[in-house]
Design a protein that fits this description.
elongated; 3 helices
């Protein structure tokens, strides 16, 4: 029994049979790194000069299958897999091409099943787009993760989840069905924009951050920590009765606002909040002074004294604001 245990331990230490790890490195200190249809990726910003890409895969999954296929297909001897993204010119299932100051990284072959980690210089901006549904049919919920990057982040994904941790630069994310998580433990100094159709949006902010918020969930709910110092724009509006709109229907025509006995001309002294509510009445319903978006919810206001612009919008998901 002791001999068996020793053999197992020796095999674990000396043979990398659990995970195969390869690395590709290229010098890049500016411009943009564009990742095309690579659903499983962890990116971390650092103060360096090289883009370092590593592949971490269970040998029993991808590598063994590919090795088996190579052995069985004698006709492929001397040839390399090819798809619309070109040949693998990195040795880790990726094709990298240059376009001006940008580097475009695309998946080749079965690379969409691989798990990549990337160390990205903080002087290089990041763009990620995943627009092919087939890349996610066999994928788990492993999100795209970007951590500690100081440069601009732009992500467009149909089905992949996204998680951003402590980004210092501007952040812009759009998803179709993927969830969006943004964890901002540090001060928010650059704009954050997140849009999703079917996914949720979860934002964590420092309690002392100064931000101007615009949050809309057309068919969901906005949840927030009650201890956050939030101020709604509409809550500061003049509360006099003449500024309270109560109607089942409001029509905006030629700049004039009319609705069931209420007529508010162009020159009427409405506060900005009330006029904005009326202007958008064709797609929203009003009850008293409360705004409802066909069962959804909206918040427009500030965190603390206001400042950096944060825009969160989802059609069918909920929005979560926490500290």
């Amino acid at each position: 029994m002791k001999k068996i245990l020793f053999a197992v331990l020796l095999l674990t230490v000396t043979c990398p049979s659990l995970y195969a790890q390869k690395e590709y490195k290229m010098e890049k200190t500016g411009g943009k790194l564009i990742l095309a249809n690579i659903p499983h990726v962890f990116i971390e910003g650092y103060d360096g000069r090289d883009v370092i890409i590593r592949i971490n895969n269970p040998v029993s999954d991808n590598a063994n299958r590919e090795l088996k296929e190579k052995r069985e297909d004698a006709r492929a001897k001397g040839l390399k897999p090819l798809n619309s993204n070109g040949f693998d010119n990195t040795g880790i299932g990726l094709n990298i091409s240059e376009s001006g100051t940008d580097a475009i990284v695309s998946a080749t072959g079965r690379a969409q099943e691989n798990y990549y980690t990337i160390r990205l210089p903080n002087t290089v901006s990041l763009t990620i787009y995943n627009n092919r549904a087939l890349y996610f049919t066999q994928s788990d919920s492993t999100p795209i993760v970007v951590q500690n990057l100081k440069s601009e982040i732009e992500i467009s994904s149909q089905f992949g989840n996204c998680r951003i941790i402590n980004a210092s630069g501007p952040v812009g994310i759009k998803t179709l069905s993927g969830n969006i998580e943004i964890l901002a433990d540090n001060a928010i100094k650059q704009p954050i924009t997140a849009y999703s159709v079917n996914g949720i949006i979860d934002l964590k902010v420092p309690e002392k951050a100064n931000a101007t918020l615009e949050m809309v969930s057309l068919n969901g709910t906005i949840y927030a920590d009650q201890s956050l110092p939030l101020t709604s724009k509409t809550s500061t509006a003049n509360s006099k009765q003449e500024h309270t709109i109560m109607a089942d229907k409001i029509v905006v025509e030629n700049g004039e606002i009319t609705g069931y006995g209420i007529k508010l001309g162009k020159t009427d002294s409405l506060n900005n909040a009330a006029r904005e509510l009326a202007r958008r009445a064709t797609e929203m319903s009003l009850t008293g002074s409360t705004l409802s978006l066909s069962g959804g919810s909206q918040f427009s206001g500030t965190l603390n004294s206001g400042g950096t612009k944060i825009t969160l919008r989802t059609t069918y998901g909920n929005i979560y604001l926490r500290k």
